[in-house]
Write a structure and sequence with these properties.
single chain, mainly alpha, Rossmann fold, 7 helices
Length: 161
């Protein structure tokens, strides 16, 4: 019974602080305002599944989210993938961040402004605590171990896969 009172008191304190703050999200933003509003930002112990028609849509969304979280200093991000290599993911992340078409990037057909944008994106991303793991045959326990190790080193931590 006392435990229920503790949870109720905690819940009411939380509701009171939300009413006073007037903030529409309670957790760290993922960089997509409409979705932030729907899920209240990232929340501890919640799992958010991303579903998209194509793998590139899902990858683009997850990479943009990882980039935003990492660059906003909201915490470290671990991105586990079985679909693309680390090199391909970094290339896509650079293209998304610099707003350069991936095909143009891969062909090396960049003008001076695009090179500048690419260098600026690279600088921003190099400072972001984003860990990409493209191990093709990892086991769940290995992933959990990697997440635990990364979590020890970060003030806040999110993992995407």
């Amino acid at each position: 019974m006392a435990e229920n009172r503790t949870h109720l008191d905690s819940t009411f304190e939380n509701i009171n602080s939300l009413c006073e703050s007037k903030d529409y999200i309670t957790g760290p933003s993922i960089g997509f305002n409409t979705l932030d509003y729907m899920i209240d930002g990232l929340q501890p112990l919640e799992l958010v599944l991303v579903v998209a028609c194509t793998s590139i849509d899902r990858i683009a969304f997850a990479l943009n989210m990882a980039s935003f979280i990492g660059q906003q200093n909201q915490g470290a991000v671990a991105y586990f993938t079985l679909e693309m290599s680390k090199k391909q993911l970094v290339q896509h992340m650079l293209c998304f961040e610099s707003r350069i078409d991936v095909e143009k990037f891969l062909q090396g057909d960049l003008d001076d402004d695009e090179w500048t944008s690419l260098c600026e994106a690279s600088e921003r991303l190099s400072e972001a605590p984003i860990y990409i793991d493209d191990t093709n045959d990892f086991k769940l326990m290995e992933m959990c171990s990697k997440v635990r190790n990364l979590k020890k080193r970060a003030k806040a931590f999110y993992h995407l896969h």
